[in-house]
């Protein structure tokens, strides 16, 4: 029997948790679910990507070429505004869990935009660069494209059903390449294909205790029981 009340209470722990945690990974991997649960457990503020606010996203998934630049720029400005607001409210006096890393924004642009659009995007990206806070810990969730597609279909968002497996393979490859050389923050890599942080409290509690120990370097998490 699970007890969600136990793990969702703010934690009193002798180990000081990271003040700014970012959860990353491709669509369908569970990053927002994990970010929300970590925020609840640690008593942190949530900083979540607002995909539902992007008016170009449905058109993008229906026909990527027709709306790729619009969808990309909307997310760029949205994330920049969220982090700018954090700076103004003094991030260092608060604690946050985010479901995105701002610096990875060009990752999608390189996949979805043509050469002229990518050049324009890069110019805009340079103009909106802000003093982006570096996470104290980044959690990178991985899963095969087939698993991602199954989870996307299960959550039942109508326009996401147009996402094909080739696109998910490209996204997975781009994420893998990006984090292969990532050194800006301590990095925790998790193969999330067989892990259910939303409903399996044992797996989640193990992760929670594990990440509180991380201070530097690259780490891999594998639950010892299911």
From TrEMBL:
Keywords: Kinase, Transferase. InterPro entries: DCK/DGK, Deoxyribonucleoside_kinase, DNK_dom, P-loop_NTPase. GO terms for molecular function: kinase activity. It comes from the Bacteria. Residues 21-209 form the Deoxynucleoside kinase domain. This is Deoxynucleoside kinase.
């Amino acid at each position: 029997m699970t007890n969600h009340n136990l793990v969702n209470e703010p934690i009193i722990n002798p180990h000081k948790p990271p003040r700014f945690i970012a959860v990353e990974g491709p669509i369908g991997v569970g990053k927002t679910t994990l970010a929300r649960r970590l925020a609840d457990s640690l008593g942190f503020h949530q900083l979540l990507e607002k995909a539902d606010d992007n008016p170009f996203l449905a058109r993008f998934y229906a026909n990527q070429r027709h709306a790729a630049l619009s969808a990309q720029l909307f997310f760029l400005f949205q994330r920049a505004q969220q982090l700018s607001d954090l700076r103004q409210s003094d991030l260092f006096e608060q604690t946050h869990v985010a479901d995105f890393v701002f610096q990875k924004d060009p990752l999608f642009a390189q996949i979805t935009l043509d050469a002229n659009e990518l050049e324009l995007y890069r110019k805009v990206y340079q103009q909106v660069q802000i003093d982006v806070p570096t996470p104290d810990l980044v959690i990178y969730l991985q899963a095969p494209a087939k698993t991602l597609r199954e989870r996307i279909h299960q959550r039942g968002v109508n326009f996401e059903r147009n996402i094909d497996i080739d696109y998910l393979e490209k996204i997975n490859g781009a994420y893998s390449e990006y984090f292969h050389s990532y050194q800006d923050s301590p990095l925790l890599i998790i193969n999330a294909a067989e892990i259910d942080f939303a409903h399996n409290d044992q797996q989640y509690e193990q992760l929670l205790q594990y990440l509180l120990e991380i201070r530097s370097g690259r780490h891999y998490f594998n639950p010892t029981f299911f």
